[in-house]
Amino acid sequence: MELTRETFHNEIKNFRSQMKPEAVSLAEQSLFLEKKGSVGVIVFDQAGEKANKLSSANMIRFFELLCQAESDPTIKALVVISKKPSIFIAGADIGEIRTLASGSTSADSLMKLQSVFTYLENLPIPSIAAIHGASMGGGTELALGCDYRMATDSPQTKIGLPEVMLGLIPGWGGTQRMPRLIGLEKSLDLILTGKTVDSGKAKKMGLVDKIVPAEYLEERAIAWANELAQTGKKRVYETRSLKEKILGTVPGGTWLVCDQARKQVMEKTKGNFPAPLKAIEVIRKTYGGPIDKGLKVEAEAFIELMVTPESQNLIHVFYLNEGVKKDKGVEGKVSSRTVGHAAVIGAGVMGGGIAQLFAAKGVRVRLKDVNWDAIMKGYHVAKKIFQKSVDRRKMKSSDLDNAMARIEGTTQYTGFGKLDLVVEAAVENMEVKKSIFKQLEEKVAETTFLATNTSSLSVTELASVTRHPQRVVGMHFFNPVDKMLLVEVIRGAQTSDEAVATLVAFSKVLGKTPIVVKDSPGFVVNRILGPYLNEAIHLLMEGVRPREMDAVIEQFGMPMGPCALIDEVGLDVASKVSQVLYGAFGERMKPPATMAQVVEQKRLGKKVGKGIYIHNNNERHEDEEMLKVFGTKPRATDLTDEVVQRRLIYLMINEASRCVEEGLVRQVSDIDVGMIFGTGFAPFRGGLLKYADSLGAETILSDLDVFVRKYGNRFQPSKLLQELAVNKKKFYDTKESHQ
Ligand code: NAI
């Protein structure tokens, strides 16, 4: 259906009549037109919210304001601006996309909203998007619909089209106007990765025309609009670089660039994410052609993607994340305390990383170890992480010096009297940790929270040696601290709500994603990984080659396979964790004896250059000698890739099910948050238990029954899984709170 300018008003009117009056009224309170001389200023200020969103009601309201501006002969130019302190427009309303996906939205109805920006583009008067703060998705598409873009130099100003992160493509003209404005290659880079750029980069790319200080944005935008009002000059698309010009003239040039992009996407995603592939297809089909046809192709592709399980799962993950942002980690009204001054005990791999993270977020930190050599190692760990940011131009070297100055090394407990928090990250030994906690109690104020980064020891037992066990809590970071987003906040038997709430709030200040977990061996993530890693060894012993196994799991969507992961973690560490889990949970967690044998041979993994693989300059090679250690049994013909995948993944599902059953997490979704942010579990599958729900408990159960008979009792299904199968229920149907 083609919308002409004449039919436009009627179509929009129809659309408006279908909207709820409350939505229309909210939009009227959130968007308005101000007149500044001959310049019309459309202001976005979403009522009652921190962010401006492009709901359908807001789009219609925006359209009405465009019409008002157009029909006022005294308005000669237009500025679109936000009143929010750090957001221009955060994008389309994702809640609405979710409801649309479950209904029967057609490309036609999407195109009606899409046409609002076409209307903006075709206004007879020039328009400027004045951008301060985040301009995401639909916000950027609105800005692209304007003739010009002015952005502030603030670090808060970030521009991007992150739709692929939700399994979608830009659906309001982004795949059309961005390539026309900045060229094919740069657009593909932004659209396919969903990454954002600051205003400096955006200017270099041609995405914005002018940069101004934040405090002058409105003033400068109006001044510029006044100039434009004199000439009435509209945007003219021009191909920017010479390369782009050549691309445009060489037959098949667009195809070549798109083909290259497709190869890169396939390599990175194994084809598991349909959205970037669809974006390439749309751009390949439409680049250089008429925009109205392009917009139609874009809308059709958007509708197609919206109903894919991948998009629905990625939107589910988006909501999981939103849930974490709002969750205080405790029920009821509990206040948390601010952490401004902390200490880290143990300056090893983890301690150095934690100190770096604290310092990067402006927290002053005392870094204590047994001697200066050890402290220097911790310093080195921290500095290396900062240096990477400097090398990538994400940080100035002067800021590196300031941040490092926030870390003060010490071998004594000096300065411990005024701390808000101490995080212990010394060696994994209960006696050492107990002695540290006893000493700490003598040195810190009564109000200081005492956290441990232990990966397997009991927080409750550790707390039992202190006089105030209520202030003792687990703060389990994952390695490497600067990259892994998850923090498990461990609630010991006597940990206070205030301690949990403070650690949850502080984890968020650090930019991490916290989940609250009850004290239990391996907590949640390592416990779920335990049987998975053991199973990898069983499979090696049954003749599956490491590369084959890793490929199966990468294809499933994990960032790396279990053999690569074991080498990354270190066989000594993995073996130690398995022993703890075996001790706690018995036979089903028993590590195959071969694991200990490999450790004895000092094949400890990547850190020593050889483990399951041989490691050379970040490359992994299979090692026939090593494979012999696991045995020479040929792989059975019925041990297909599919079976390998199920054996590995189902054991994780089964263990996660037990964690839910035992009430270790506060809600089922916490398992999925933990697995996605702690292990990189395939986000397009929505998380481990969301994936289990998509298969259905019955399916999993019938496979597990076969596996028990064939491979042993470790596949015995959990009670909850059996109940779900009998009652035809899903994990996400179970009572959300288990505490
Ligand atoms: P590491 O061996 O690299 O560092 C431990 C540091 O603690 C050493 O510098 C050592 O000198 C110091 N230390 C030992 N006794 C001490 C004492 N009494 N007072 C002060 N410092 C003392 O160990 P890593 O890997 O950093 O692990 C530290 C903790 O973090 C352990 O509890 C470990 O289980 C946990 N963890 C480790 C992870 C990993 O992947 N390495 C992941 C998550 C947690």
Q: So what's the overall shape?
A: globular
Report the helical percentage.
40-55%
Give the N-to-C terminal Cα separation: 54 Å
Query: CATH architecture of the largest domain, please?
Result: Alpha-Beta Complex
How much of the sequence is in beta strands? 5-15%
The description of the largest β-sheet is: 8 strands, mixed
| Assigned CATH class of the largest domain | Alpha Beta
- What is the SS-derived class? alpha/beta
* Number of helices, counting only DSSP H or I runs of 4 residues or more: 32
- Relevant CATH superfamily of the largest domain: 2-enoyl-CoA Hydratase, Chain A, domain 1
Oligomer: single chain
Outline of this structure?
This protein is α/β, with parallel strands linked by helices and 739 residues long.
What does this structure look like?
By secondary structure, this protein is of the alpha/beta class. It folds into three domains: 5-307, 2-enoyl-CoA Hydratase, Chain A, domain 1; 341-519, NAD(P)-binding Rossmann-like Domain (Rossmann fold), CATH 3.40.50; 550-634, N-(1-d-carboxylethyl)-l-norvaline Dehydrogenase, domain 2. It is built from 32 helices and 20 strands. The strands form four sheets. An eight-stranded mixed sheet has the order 13-12-11-14-15-16-17-18, sandwiched between helices. It is globular. The mean pLDDT is 93. Bound molecules: 1,4-dihydronicotinamide adenine dinucleotide.
